[in-house]
Amino acid sequence: MRYVAKRDGFPHPVLGQRDHHWPDGRFETSVDCSLQRTPRGHELAVDARFDSNVEAIRQLVDEGAAVCALWLYCPRTSYRRLVRATHDGDDPWRICVRVNTLKLRGRTEIHPQVIAARPLTLNTQQANPAYRGRDIPVEAGAPLAVAAHFNAPLDDGDMGVQGMFLIREDLAYGYGWHVHADPQEAAVTIWAAPDTVAYFQQRRNTDWPVETVFLAALTDSLSVWLQNADRDWEDGGWGATIRRRLEEVGVDCLDGAFEHDGQHRSLMWVAQLLLEWPLRPRPEPDDRPDR
Length: 291
What we know:
By secondary structure, this protein is of the alpha+beta class. It is 20% helix and 33% strand. It is built from five helices and 16 strands.
């Protein structure tokens, strides 16, 4: 279910929801986003700063009764996360967060807000006179201020083939892996039992995932891609990622098959090429050349 930042029905005035709630009030936000390359892949880095001239809200944030927060939502993967600023020596009016792009596709909505960290009372002396300057009780989690959301687009051209896969848990497949490559969806979903996924995560930073799970999943995905090669792939989708990589490595799609240097190539061969030859012979740690 999608999160909607601006809601009606609160018994207290919400800064930014309606202009007349706080006639002279301001809730200013700035959000800087960038795509960062890390040893574990790519991350969306978000740096958000908040400010307000409503003294009642400022005081609540400074004392920790309310917190600045970001609601992150990706429409294409249904990824949702609420990130709160901290008061442990950090600036309570700033949030820095990183999200692995394996969880995202296309764009991510970033909703800045201030929410009640616990039940509190809100001073409304600066609010609309209709509130009569009363102290109004506010429930924990209720918004005190909201701002228009930002869109953080992801340039999938900066991401490798592995970034087009989402790993999900499902008990239906036992110890086996199940690949779901739907041209209508943004990512290829790889399903497995929780224990199997946990084992995958333990070995994620080794060569094993590419040599096994990703290689097999990409081979399956290439089969689906071939059946839809003429499709106008939506920017950011897994099909667009494959199309870009095929162009980069010089693989052509002719008559429903792959060709490279004028020769027919199997799906598995193309998958290995796109993953930069994960099965190539490599010396074992103890196999040292003679001196």
